[in-house]
Amino acid sequence: MSRQPGGEGGDIHVTIYRFDPSTDAAPRYEQYSAPRTKYMRIIDVLEYLTEVKGIGIAYRSSCGIKKCGTCGVMANGVPKLACYEAAQDGMTIEPLRNFRVIRDLVTDRAPYQEKIDSITPFLVRDSQPGKFPEDLRHSQMIERNRFDQCITCLLCVAACPIMESNPSFVGPAAATRAAALLEDVRDAGAEARLDTLADEFGLWRCHMIGECTEVCPAHAEPALAIQRLRRRSVKRTLRAMVRRVGGGHRP
Ligand code: SF4
Ligand code: FES
Predict the structure, then answer these.
(1) 110-245 has which fold?
(2) Which of 67, 150, 167, 192 has CB atoms 3.0–4.6 Å from 220's, for a disulfide?
(3) Which ligand 1 atom is the nearest neighbour of the CA of 215?
């Protein structure tokens, strides 16, 4: 049996984390099945269970095409986008790790958004552009564009072992945003941003394990973002030291 033309037949079985902190004493896992369809994704399973079967599983999604970053879940223990990851028989679907659960697969993104906000996540200009479109060469924007691939899905935060042991760590998604701005020739906010990132929960908390880059669905390279910020931070410190001792050498 298939739900749509091209369906493969048979059922797919999944285990889903269920928890409503307002009524449940503890989380539980429930098993469900859905008719398998061709190219079936996790989101298709969730839509079938909620919209066809009327089961009140809470989850987030919007674009359905790997753009909005809202549909992150743990799939068999690995952070994935539900609108992109193939559904597999026997799969366990849970809320993103390292976030408080609001209900079922919906997590509280607000505390992490505050971290992103703390690094002034927008272009800081010291002068207005003389014309529009601005006179920018591709070569000037290529590094910014790399980090701008970030869709703020927060899968990297769910994958980060430092976030798990140290929730105050600024984390890879905020760092990726900061690195995008660092690479923007128009930005004048780097100094203040690096000051914010230099504290005990900033850049130097990262152990460069690289799980963030492994799971990033947008290839935004959050671990490289942290490296870039560290390099700039070290250069800045060395320059300040040279200035203090009155040397003329510029590292
Ligand atoms: S860096 Fe990648 S994994 Fe992290 S929030 Fe951005 S897109 Fe998602
Ligand atoms: S629903 Fe938008 S990225 Fe998955």
Answers:
(1) Fumarate Reductase Iron-sulfur Protein; Chain B, domain 2 (1.10.1060)
(2) 150
(3) 3
